[in-house]
């Protein structure tokens, strides 16, 4: 910025003014006597006056001053993108972006020489991380990520409190860490992004995104959706193939990608071979030449089960339902069924000629149970246990404490009355669903729902239906031909359907036997879903299957009391639909049940990291599913190269029982995490497994065109401006006119400039030539 109005010899102002006045008077007298026209005389007089005035100003020494950056006092940074996106060729057969950039990064280029002369120049290269470089001759453009946000954050940290004039950021803007909302823009120096690349659309096919939907549909429990993007080629057929972790092809399909939307979705339904973490890979091939091929493949992790899940079945009497349920779950390695079945009520059903002496139940006479303290009493129910882990499990009947009951993941109550349980046990069941997050299914029967006395109990509160039915409805729903139909919500639930297509499901429903007994109930509770109904010959419908969320868990009501009829027709219909329905229902019941140790993995959102960094969140619970603090965790990460590394976790202050760990994926491919938790006393709590797929190049080449939007945002937020590569020399030459942290004032005498004297002499010569030409003298 230049200032005027300064004088080096103000004491000469009087003599200069006097001399100018004398010269002006002489000039006017001379031109007044001249015979020429007034117009030419005026022009000549003006030229001479201006020339005399310029010479008179030299006596007072006029000065110009301004502020400029002090040479070498300010820092200036140049950060260059060294990632693989610089290997893209914007024109077929032309130079890569990196090759164009290298020509501008030679040490002898004018803009670098001028920056080095006027500033304390610092050079950096960045890909996943930023590092200092002596010069740019060593760039290889081989980085697997473009950490623009982390580079900016690192520059802010390094130059905090130092005089930095700005940052030249040479990149295509395709950042793989897009968390720039976390940056503190106020502390960042002006950034001047230099665009590398063009806005041209390059031909490319890519797997843009993969999502997984897991259901309880037994035939295909996992659905993989792959979004395929095709640009620069109009309508295109793309072959999409699904592979397993061993690179064996599972399915291939051709999708049509329209030019208007550029995106199509491939949908695969698979059944993972084993429980736990499974890895799948989707590859897309467009069949034509592409700008890059590194983005044609993406992987995804599917966690197929965290079991085995334990299901507690409680029945008031032996029945067919337990037989079919046990048969259904026998071959499922994710489900374990434990049965507690009453075979005699408190008052024996057998009438003897005399009861005899003692309080032991005469049903067990002859079994050598002579111990009065341990023998079953005649005033206690007689229970049998099936599928227990050891002799102690359920020895005293239904669990009486939270740590005993919370070992299970779901409870099935079948034809057992509320009086079978104590009030504390009923409250435990309610807590099992609401706090522990377990699942509860009540099946129909003569001792279920309102008939079982659950109306004013904690279990009645958590059921998805009100238990205040009209007795007339109960009579109308019994001894009738009841046909099962699915509601709209039922058709949308995978676990309710047993066939893949609607037509096949309609045929299945038509072939089902009629039911003859069910429990009638009142209205559905708010938030409950009616998934199935039964209809009698007159067309009256009654709820048959209702479900809802309750607290952290879920509850369901199966109101049909004779579903076993379905299984008895197995010989007539060659299928196992009843068993399949039981498996899907129980899998739904335990699908979201929390475990004592749970782990989640997320892409790290810290601005200091890139997309390859992961944050692990581990939640640990005690036996009553309360947050467990001071737990000891062993976290092992196994990479695609089978190498294992242990990482540490720290307790999170924001939530009790939450532990956080961080890991950076240095090797592309699938990673598996095994977490083992120990209680403060050293006792085992549990273990869990999860995983993710590190794909740095797929993220690096997610977008091929220059990301002007991001670079404009960076320049706008920091007070910089976006530049083209060819504008570097002009921009650097104008930096002395920009505001800098450290500046100096400069003063320059105006009369020292040759142009000033040239102007004064030109005016005098012009006036003399005009007089000679027009004969003014």
TrEMBL record:
Residues 394-590 form the Putative glutamine amidotransferase domain. The chain crosses the membrane at residues 12-31, 43-63. The keyword Transmembrane helix applies. Keywords: Glutamine amidotransferase, Membrane, Transmembrane, Transmembrane helix. InterPro entries: Class_I_gatase-like, GATase1-like, Ig-like_fold. The keyword Repeat does not apply. Pfam families: GATase1_like. Gene3D superfamilies: 3.40.50.880, Immunoglobulins (2.60.40.10). This is Glutamine amidotransferase.
């Amino acid at each position: 910025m230049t200032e005027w109005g300064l004088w080096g010899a103000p004491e000469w102002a009087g003599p200069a003014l006097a001399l100018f006045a004398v010269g002006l008077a002489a000039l006017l007298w001379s031109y007044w006597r001249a015979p020429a026209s007034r117009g030419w005389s005026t022009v000549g007089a003006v030229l001479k006056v201006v020339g005399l005035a310029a010479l008179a100003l030299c006596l007072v020494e006029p000065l110009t001053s301004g502020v400029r950056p002090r040479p070498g006092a300010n820092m200036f940074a140049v950060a260059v993108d060294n990632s693989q996106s610089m290997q893209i060729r914007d024109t077929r057969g032309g130079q890569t972006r990196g090759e164009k950039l290298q020509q501008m990064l030679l040490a002898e280029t004018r803009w670098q020489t001028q920056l080095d002369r006027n500033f304390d120049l610092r050079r950096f290269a960045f890909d996943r991380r930023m590092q200092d470089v002596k010069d740019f001759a060593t760039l290889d453009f081989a980085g697997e990520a473009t950490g623009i946000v982390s580079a900016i954050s690192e520059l802010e940290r390094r130059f905090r409190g130092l005089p930095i004039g700005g940052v030249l950021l040479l990149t295509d803007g395709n950042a793989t860490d897009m968390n720039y909302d976390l940056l503190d823009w106020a502390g960042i120096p002006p950034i001047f992004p230099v665009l590398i690349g063009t806005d041209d659309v390059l031909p490319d096919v890519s797997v843009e995104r993969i999502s997984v939907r897991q259901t309880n549909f037994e035939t295909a429990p996992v659905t993989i959706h792959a979004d395929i993007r095709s640009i620069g080629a109009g309508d295109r057929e793309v072959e999409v193939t699904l592979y397993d972790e061993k690179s064996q092809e599972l399915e291939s399909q051709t999708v049509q990608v329209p030019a208007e939307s550029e995106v199509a979705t491939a949908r695969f339904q698979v059944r993972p071979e084993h429980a736990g973490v499974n890895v799948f890979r989707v590859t897309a091939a467009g069949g034509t030449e592409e700008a890059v091929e590194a983005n044609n493949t993406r992987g995804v992790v599917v966690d197929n089960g965290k079991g085995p899940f334990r299901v507690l079945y409680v029945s008031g009497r032996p029945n067919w339902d337990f037989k079919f349920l046990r048969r259904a779950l026998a071959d499922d390695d994710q489900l374990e069924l434990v049965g507690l079945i009453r075979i005699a009520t408190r008052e024996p059903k057998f009438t003897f000629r005399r009861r005899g002496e003692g309080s032991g139940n005469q049903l067990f006479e002859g079994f050598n149970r002579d111990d009065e303290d341990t023998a079953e009493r005649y005033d206690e129910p007689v229970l049998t246990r099936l599928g227990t882990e050891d002799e102690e499990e359920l020895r005293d009947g239904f669990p009486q404490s939270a740590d005993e009951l919370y070992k299970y993941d779901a409870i099935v109550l079948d034809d057992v009355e509320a009086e079978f349980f104590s009030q504390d046990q009923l409250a435990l069941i309610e807590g099992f669903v609401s706090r522990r997050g377990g699942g509860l299914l009540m099946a129909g029967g003569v001792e279920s729902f309102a008939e079982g006395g659950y109306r004013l109990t904690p279990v009645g509160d958590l059921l998805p239906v009100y238990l205040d039915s009209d007795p007339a409805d109960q009579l109308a729903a019994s001894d009738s031909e009841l046909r099962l139909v699915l509601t709209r919500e039922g058709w949308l639930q995978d676990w309710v359907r047993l066939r893949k297509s609607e037509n096949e499901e309609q045929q299945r429903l038509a072939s089902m036997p009629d039911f003859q007994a069910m429990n009638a109930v009142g209205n559905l509770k708010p938030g409950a879903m009616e998934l199935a109904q039964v209809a009698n010959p007159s067309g009256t419908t009654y709820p048959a299957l209702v479900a809802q969320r309750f607290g952290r868990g879920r509850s369901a009501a199966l109101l049909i009391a004779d579903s076993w009829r379905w299984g008895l027709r197995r010989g007539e219909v060659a299928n196992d639909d009843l068993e399949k329905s039981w498996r899907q229902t129980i899998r739904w019941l335990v699908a979201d049940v929390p475990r004592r140790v749970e782990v989640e993995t997320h892409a790290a959102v810290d601005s200091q990291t890139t997309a390859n960094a992961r944050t692990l969140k581990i939640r640990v619970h005690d036996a009553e599913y309360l947050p467990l603090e001071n737990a000891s965790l062993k976290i092992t990460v196994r990479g695609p190269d089978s190498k294992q590394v242990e990482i540490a976790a720290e307790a999170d202050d924001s939530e009790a029982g939450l532990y956080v760990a961080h890991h950076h994926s240095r090797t592309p491919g699938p990673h598996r995490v095994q977490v083992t938790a120990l209680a403060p006393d050293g006792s085992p709590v549990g273990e869990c497994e999860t995983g993710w797929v590190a794909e740095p190049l797929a993220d690096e080449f997610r977008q091929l065109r220059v990301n002007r939007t991001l670079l404009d945002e960076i320049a706008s937020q920091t007070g910089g401006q976006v530049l083209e590569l060819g504008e570097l020399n002009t921009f650097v030459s104008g930096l002395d006119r920009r505001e800098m942290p450290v500046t100096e004032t400069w003063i320059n005498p105006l009369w020292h400039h040759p142009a000033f004297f040239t102007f004064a002499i030109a005016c005098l010569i012009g006036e003399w030539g005009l007089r000679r030409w027009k004969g003014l003298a």
